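Sanity check

After download, print the first record. It should look like this:
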Amino acid sequence: MHILKIIHGFPPQYNAGSEVYSQSVVNELIKTEKVTVFTREENQYQPDFRFRKETRQGVDFVYVNMARAKDAYNHNVVNERFEKLISEIKPDIAHVGHLNHLSLGMVDVLHKNKIPIVFTLHDFWLMCPRGQFLQRNFDGKNLFKLCDIQEDNKCASNCYSMYFSNETSENYYTNWVKKRMEFTRKITKKINLFIAPSRYLMNRFVSDFDLPKEKVIYLDYGFPTHYFKSITNKLTDSYTFGYIGTHIPAKGINLLVEAFKMLKTKAKLKIFGRPDGQNTSALQKMAESSQNEIEFCGEYLNHNLALTVFNQVHCIVVPSIWAENSPLVIHEAQACKIPVITANIGGMSEYVQNQVNGLLFEHRNVVSLYEQMQFAVDNPQTMSRLGERGYLYSENGEVSSIEEHCKILNSIYKSLIQ
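Expected structure tokens:
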């Protein structure tokens, strides 16, 4: 079986959740199947939409250069070149992880060539032009306001007003969003099966985006669990909180820093993740006034996660200001029996239950986050017991291995291939 894995970025260039998950899936599938990865790069010194091929560790990669085309959703040149690629490599099935920064029209190409399509939903991008239901308000008052549902005129006024130059601009962008959403809905009808890694995300797509129930299944992520075997976590130092991930505003690290600064007892905070220019600089400036130690630890290698991250913390905090659907870091912490503090919304509260295997705080509420962090510092033994509970949806508290996960994926692929 020849599997075409399509994802908008791939490690080591891109290391967010969907990319890391895709890498784990590819590394496992390649043991028994042929895999081609179609992904993007952003090379400012090469022409837009150039295709480039390379082979690494038994995997064929095809990169499309998307250096200057981030805001568009469909590119005819990409679609045409993608169709030539399909006729050349002849995949049996396509597994899409994300099409942002690529081209929605690629689904048309696959459907036209009778290639079955599986689509894993990693966020809201199909139903929200910006992907996270966070508004890009420019009124100076409502930074990253949470959005409840997609509406064309609301998208234009609250997320694209930065482009307005006169009274006709709002109508233009309202129509732009309308066309984008119409095209997206048309495309989704050509996808054979959607996989949602949280029940929350599955239900949102069925109720708010009208995906047919029979076309969406729930399947949580799988993990290379051998990464977590070296965990010892025998810390005797001050109670240490950890954050793992990117430094973009949607992750809510500023809330974490502010809540940490409110703690009344000695503690530490370690922030892991690739530095992100001025975002990281702003967070470091914010951390300067903390009486307790805040350390920016830089990037880590995923296969060293237990040793370099989880062995250095007592607790992981996931403070995202959007309704994340199934954060990898929560599962990874649970695999290492590390308790998690996270928000009471979305898939975060699906995989962490208050006083069961972690703590929940009121979403986007810095005082509520502080209160739960203070509880953790004051009750380290209770937190340790919560961490031991691990993953809620298995009898032994273990997350699903990537081997078991890919067996399920393989059975899905085979059921769709005629």
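If your output differs, re-run the checksum step. Summary of this record's structure: The chain has a mean pLDDT of 93.
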